[in-house]
Amino acid sequence: MNSSTGGPVSTGGPADGDTFDAGAGSVLRQPKAVWATAGAAVVAFMGIGLVDPILPSIAEGLDAGAGQVSLLFTSYFLITAIAMLVTGFVSSRIGGRKTLLLGLALVVVFAGLSGTSGSVGELVGFRAGWGLGNALFVSTALAVIVGAAAGGSAAAILLYESALGLGMACGPLLGALLGDASWRYPFFGTAFLMAVGFLCITVFLKEQPKPARKTGLLDPVKALGHGGLASVAVSSFFYNYTFFTVLAFTPFVLDMTPYKSGAVFFAWGVLLAVFSVVVAPRMQARFGSLKVLGGSLVLLAADVLVLGYGSHTTAVVCTILSGAFIGVNNTVYTELALGVSDAPRPVASAGYNFVRWFAAAAAPYFAPKIEEWSNVHIPFAVAAVTAVLGALVVLVRRNALTQEAEELAERHSTEDSVTVFAN
Q1: d(CA 307, CA 367)
Q2: In whole angstroms, what is the distance from residue 50 CA to residue 190 CA?
Q3: Which of 4, 252, 330, 372 sits at 20 to 30 Å (Cα–Cα) from 56?
Q4: To 10 degrees, the CA torsion angle through 20, 146, 151, 30?
Q5: Kindly report the CA angle at 43 between 367 and 97, in degrees rounded to 5?
Q6: Measured between alpha carbons, how far is 46 from 373 in angstroms, rounded to an integer?
Q7: What does the pLDDT read at residue 141?
Q8: 363 to each of 73, 249, 386, how far by Cα in Å?
Q9: In whole angstroms, what is the distance from residue 69 CA to residue 60 CA?
């Protein structure tokens, strides 16, 4: 759930460390419109991990099993994946501001309705509507922030990535604090915060120019015809299965109170943010993107395997530690996806996200099923295998990925368009 840094990072050479440093120097000097959008982005990303600490409470309150409650993630990300074909189509026709407001309005409505659910089926359905609103918002937020930001795109992108990390970290914390009283309160709290974001964007953000070229519904799918982009998308598909096994299934294995579970996933989110924004660019600069990605995927596989077979304390430590590997992977995958093909960046990003979010929908569904068919350890063994498969795809396609990224580097460096790694 990260953005690209704009220009491509060579998969075999250094990343642009100067971009990060330049952005850090001017990130705080922004107009109100940027802060309004970034603030709403924090809340939007909070919605992803919001339900983590309260999954057991929801299951108890609605008399549902782990498999049924995990569908909260499945419905959310299934709709998000399909919406990737729609967001560019919509925003290129009605403009970024109206797309943001439409997305926020949908989140306010469906997050509020989620809190009124009388059955797990209703809640799953409302989460699907929430996913559509969130997709419209996060897929447009970076372009809007860059268009309104002071200090260049580096500062704007750093601000966006910081919002993503902060949201991923604070989502479980908010879920724990409000969910300790009732599992319904986190949903009402999110609806309220997004309503505040809606008002801020209405007041402070002016409409920006529409793109010169309108995006077609099938443009993202056509972009996947490029071998390099398809390889990145397939590798990320396997990785995201691992990612969302940790995010959606681990709370049931830890079986902790909302406060304790929220603290675990808050620490997880902090590591994700730090390694995504700070550590990953420096590792890329030293070792190159493909080596960093391959090594991080293998380490994530080992971590998840130990998580599944270790003691309860070990599982807590490994859950938190996985945030570091996930943060690195998110950053590198996005840069590869946006730098490896000749498709416009918004289109390449949509195609890439269209593929990978299906894994985010699949993992929460299959992990509890696999546990029912076997035991609690096997879902994590499967997740470890999918992380290794992601690394193998990168290994097999490493020459093509490197060559194609280098051939397109000069072309991409002159482009003004930016895109988002939508969550």
Answers
A1: 14
A2: 9
A3: 330
A4: -110
A5: 115
A6: 32
A7: 79
A8: 9, 8, 11
A9: 10
Residues of the chain with pLDDT under 70: 1-28, 146, 149-158, 161, 211, 400, 403-423
What angle is formed at CA 106 by the lines to CA 84 and CA 366, rounded to 5 degrees?
Answer: 55
CA distance 274 to 227: 32
DSSP 3-state percent helix, strand, coil across the chain (nearest 5): 80, 0, 20
What gap in Å lies between CA 322 and CA 302, rounded to an integer? 10
Q: Which amino acid is at 56?
A: P
Note the pLDDT tens digit of each residue in 310-344.
999 999 999 999 999 998 998 888 778 877 877 77
| pLDDT score for 8 | 37
Amino acid, single-letter form, for residue 105: A
pLDDT at position 189 is 87
What burial class does residue 399 get, using C-beta atoms within 10 Å of its C-beta: 0-12 exposed, 13-18 middle, 19+ buried? Answer: exposed
Q: How far is Cα 394 from Cα 391, in angstroms, rounded to an integer?
A: 5
**Which domains does the chain carry?**
17-413 (1.20.1250.20)
* pLDDT tens per residue, range 101-124: 999 999 999 999 999 998 888 988
If we measure between CA atoms, which residue out of 264, 257, 255, 231 comes closest to residue 356? 231
The CA distance from 382 to 375, in Å, is 12
C-alpha–C-alpha distance, residues 40 and 54, integer Å = 23
Closest alpha carbon to 246 in 186, 296, 303: 303
Contact predicate 304/389, CB 8 Å: no
Sign of CA dihedral 187, 190, 195, 196: positive
Residue type present at position 72: L
Q: Which two tokens stand for residue 147?
A: 């268009």
Phi (first) and psi of residue 112, to 5 degrees: -60, -45
Go through 358-385 and write b for each residue having 16 or more CB atoms within 10 A of its CB, e for each that does not. Answer: bbbbbbbbbbbebbeeeeebebbbbbbb
